[in-house]
Give the backbone structure.
Amino acid sequence: MVRAQAISLSLAVAPFGVTFGIAASDAGLAVWQASAFSALVFTGSAQFAAVEIIGDGGSAVSAIVAGLLLNVRSLAFGVVMAPSLPSSRWRRALWSQLMIDETTAVGSAQTDHAARRYGYIVTGVAVFVTWNVSTVLGAGVLGTAGDVVTRFGFDATIPAAFLALLWPRLAARDQGRAALVGAVVALALVPVTPPGVPIIAATVGVAVGWRARPGSRAS
């Protein structure tokens, strides 16, 4: 099951890796720069925000700040996965490179620490390899493809993959309520706030879900 999920997610991110490669090429980055970006940063939302800012003439500082805002959620991912990734500091630092939505979703869905660690690492390696190969394809081969992404609906693959991962968890009333509140907050803020702020603000849904859990209120 874990391997199947890892393969499915790696296939789902491939079109977005291609899209990033194209966006990086449009922003003036060379193929090696786009490739290094994916290998060293490896977090799609921050990469897209950065190349968009750079392409519009923004500064590196602006690109870095936008990336940090968009990935504050990784702190929560680390808290969730840390108990299942006990090891030396250098190995934890290595594993942290794989700390993305997909790896955390698959890892945290497992029932024990060994399975959570296995799901996290297998998914991370699969997605990392696919993301980097597809980045090179986008930047080096399809850099002038223009509207190929939207024409073939590649931009819908990641949301569909996340929905498939989250759907089983929404059956629980407290988690469903948390997801609904987070979604409403994020959608309301997207038109009026900078990138990253809606994601951070949507975490209020977690507090709502926690308060709704049995035993969470003081008697």
About this structure: Residues 113-140 form the longest helix (28 residues).
